[in-house]
Write a structure and sequence with these properties.
The chain is an alpha+beta fold. The chain has 6 helices and 18 strands. It has helices spanning 79-88, 122-131, 210-217, 242-259, 284-305, 315-319; strands spanning 2-4, 12-19, 24-35, 37-41, 47-49, 63-69, 93-94, 99-100, 103-107, 149-150, 160-161, 164-171, 174-181, 187-189, 195-197, 231-238, 260-261, 271-280. The strands form 5 sheets. Strands 1-12-13-16-18-4 form a 6-stranded mixed beta sheet. The chain has a 5-stranded mixed beta sheet with strand order 2-3-6-9-5.
């Protein structure tokens, strides 16, 4: 197995758009053709649109796009911009009188980082579609990652900047990639088990452990778990139907659990989509295991790529280099 570029998976384009001053943005994944998709939501507070069409018992066999957005539930209006972009190009599910673009969307909470009154809207999402390319997407403080942060157990004054990241793997002809906007209550850990980002110490010059402080407190304050939700997408060139993809999305949450501690809290909306973009034969268990590894590494890249912004230090500011 080897590392490859995310766009080598093929069958899709990625576009970012953001309002840097307001610290919010969105990222669109446009499928080259209507593609089977699955979804697994583990967080207790998701904000989503057209998620039910991905239920294995729903009739839809595929979707045209996935949109990851800031703005919390206010950002759900943005999917209309993706629909408009696709409708203008006669792309969507044929219902006889027209074609209806099928766009699934999930939002993360970034209202405490920049302006709470500025959120991704249809115009921003349309711009993300116009920006979509088959080239490697930018990482860090871009798109849905613009207002992302981690380590928020003690409030934003001890949080760190996070962002958007990708990672992909290939085994034989099989390719699996992960794209993620990391916006977590918890801390971020590298593959070697070392904490690399998250809760700052009181002096804001080093790291504290969210788990240690969480267990010390025992009783949580009301409405503590706000400002979170990590959103991910798995892409593969293997051929699967959406029931299998739902299982792959579920297995990918193992990558969340290895890299983010704690994760899947009651007011997170932690969600993972899985898209089948090719015709290569694949085993669900193999792809699920590869997806979890790719997601774990994409999360680390998202954090390391994010520079200091909005008063939140990035990894470089804490670790140097």
């Amino acid at each position: 197995m080897k590392e490859i570029g995310i766009m080598e998976v093929g069958g899709f384009r990625v576009g970012h758009a953001q309002n840097e001053e307001a610290a919010t943005g969105c990222t669109v994944i446009l499928c080259d053709q209507m593609s089977p998709a699955g979804l697994d939501v583990r967080g207790g507070g998701p904000a989503s649109r057209e998620s039910q069409i991905l239920n294995p018992v729903a009739n839809a066999e595929g979707i045209n796009a996935v949109l990851l957005s800031g703005g919390s539930a206010f950002g759900l209006d943005a999917a209309g911009g993706v629909q408009k972009y696709l409708e203008e190009r006669d792309i969507g599910f044929d219902v006889g009188v027209t074609k209806v673009p099928l766009v699934s969307q999930s939002c993360l909470f970034d209202l405490t980082v920049g302006s709470k009154d500025v959120r991704p809207d249809a115009a921003m999402a349309y711009a993300a579609c116009e920006n979509a390319r088959a080239d490697a997407p930018a990482e860090g403080n871009v798109g849905a990652g613009t207002g992302c942060s981690v380590g928020k157990y003690r409030g934003m004054e001890r949080a760190m900047k996070s962002g958007f990241g990708t990672y992909a793997l290939q085994a034989g002809a099989l390719k699996v990639g992960a794209l993620v906007a990391v916006n977590a209550l918890g801390d971020i850990y590298g593959p070697e088990g070392t904490q690399i980002a998250g809760l700052l110490n009181p002096e804001r010059n080093g790291l504290s452990s969210t788990l240690d402080e969480l267990f010390h407190d025992v009783t949580l304050a009301e409405n503590l778990f706000t400002g979170n939700t990590t959103l991910g997408v798995i892409v593969t060139n293997a051929k699967f139907h959406k029931t299998q993809l739902t299982k792959i999305a579920g297995m990918t949450h193992n990558g969340y659990a290895r890299a983010i501690r704690p994760v899947h809290t009651t007011a997170d909306g932690d969600s993972i989509y899985a898209l089948s973009l090719g015709q290569i034969p694949g085993d669900v268990n193999v792809v699920g295991a590869m997806a979890a590894l790719a997601m774990e590494r994409a999360i680390v890249r998202a954090v390391r790529a994010a520079g200091s912004a909005y008063g939140l230090p990035g990894c470089d500011a804490i670790h140097g280099g």
